[in-house]
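Hi support team,

I've been running sequence recovery on a batch of backbones for a student project. Most finish fine, but this one hangs at about 90% for roughly twenty minutes before it completes. I'm not sure whether the input is malformed or the queue is just slow. I've pasted the structure tokens below so you can try to reproduce it. Let me know if you need the job ID as well.

Thanks,
M.K.
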């Protein structure tokens, strides 16, 4: 397991489109998941301890962001050949267990993760209503363990600002997590 940090936010970068299968049996596109005030794209997976530490918080943030008009989607791009717990059936089970209120999509080809420039799980991309990147920071102070109760909700506060003003905060702390498990070349 390799710990990586996300790059600095490239403000204004457009959100790539996608068309991926969800654990709910539907296919989802970027425009189907965006909200009237913006979009949060999260790259997550099942096996990563950094994601496991924050699953309940992801549910809370998604619900609270939906109330602000921010659409939320989660995408798993890990290669299940090497990490079987990240396969589609396990994705369905985890989404049910934690009551994910957002579409949980499988990027089997890994083309969407590459288009976004995702590097780790979790990796957060927050867009304004024009689908311009405004946030590429962390959820909060969580790492392999959840942040203490009462920790600043950095992602929520940033996306609340984006929903209200169209701009993200100038200062953003990078996210961290396990490297995305890329397929071997030629697969």
């Amino acid at each position: 397991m390799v710990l990586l940090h996300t790059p600095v936010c490239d403000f204004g970068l457009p959100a790539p489109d996608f068309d991926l299968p969800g654990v709910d049996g539907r296919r989802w596109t970027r425009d189907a998941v965006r909200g009237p005030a913006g979009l949060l794209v999260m790259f997550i997976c099942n096996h990563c301890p950094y994601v496991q530490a924050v699953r309940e918080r992801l549910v809370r943030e998604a619900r609270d962001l939906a109330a602000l008009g921010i659409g939320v989607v989660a995408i798993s791009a890990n290669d299940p050949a090497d990490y079987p717990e990240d396969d589609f059936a396990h994705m369905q089970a985890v989404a049910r267990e934690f009551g994910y209120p957002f579409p949980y999509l499988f990027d089997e080809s890994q083309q969407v993760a590459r288009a976004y420039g995702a590097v780790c799980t979790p990796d957060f991309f927050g867009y304004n209503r024009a689908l311009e990147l405004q946030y590429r920071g962390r959820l909060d102070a969580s790492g392999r363990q959840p942040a203490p109760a009462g920790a600043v909700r950095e992602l929520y506060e940033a996306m609340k600002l984006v929903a209200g003003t169209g701009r993200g905060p100038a200062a953003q702390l990078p996210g961290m997590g396990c490297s995305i498990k890329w397929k071997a070349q030629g697969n």
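--
Follow-up from support: It reproduced on our side and the slowdown came from queue contention, not your input. Strands lie at 3-5, 19-21, 27-29, 38-43, 70-76, 104-106, 120-121, 123-127, 133-135, 176-179. No action needed from you.
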